Structure formats: structure tokens, C-alpha cells
Amino acid sequence: MKRLPTAARTWHPYEDWAALIGGPVQVRRDGAVVSAGTVDDVMPDSSALWLAADAGQGRRCYTRSEGYEVWISPRDLQPTLLFRPSSA
Q1: Which of 23, 26, 62, 84 has the smallest number of Cβ neighbours within 10 A?
Q2: Using CA of residue 56, residue 71, residue 1, residue 21, what is the dihedral sign?
């Protein structure tokens, strides 16, 4: 799937970090983008996220308790991320 340039995408906050493994995201704090990349791993309760950052910034952990938010561009998500089966 070809990604649109960052400026051409619409971004939205997303609360269920655990659903985003393998997807492209932005990490924001206080409204500012602090990093962007691919979600490498998350805590099951969405309290922490490990990001493989773009531009060679390496892998870093971001936590919700420190005020970080994860934003997604729905156009970039894989179909498996958009339609998670119910656990019921």
C-alpha cells in the first residue's frame, strides 16, 4: 500500500493502541508531533507503545501516563487493523 505524503493525510487521535501494531502513526504531546513511524509493539492495556521511528530515529517507548497521544491516518491502515473481529 502506497502512503500519501504526511501533509496530504488527515490525522485522528486513536485510543486503542493495542490495535495498531504494524501500522504507521504519529506520536503527539501537547498538540505537537514528537515522532512518526511504525508501531513495533504495545502493552495490551494500551498504556505504552514502542515506535520504530522514521528517519533513523530508532526504537522508543511512549507512555500514555506521560501525556503522549497516538494519531492515525485511516487511509494508511491495513484492512486487518480497520476490521478487528469481536472477541465475543
Answers
A1: 84
A2: positive
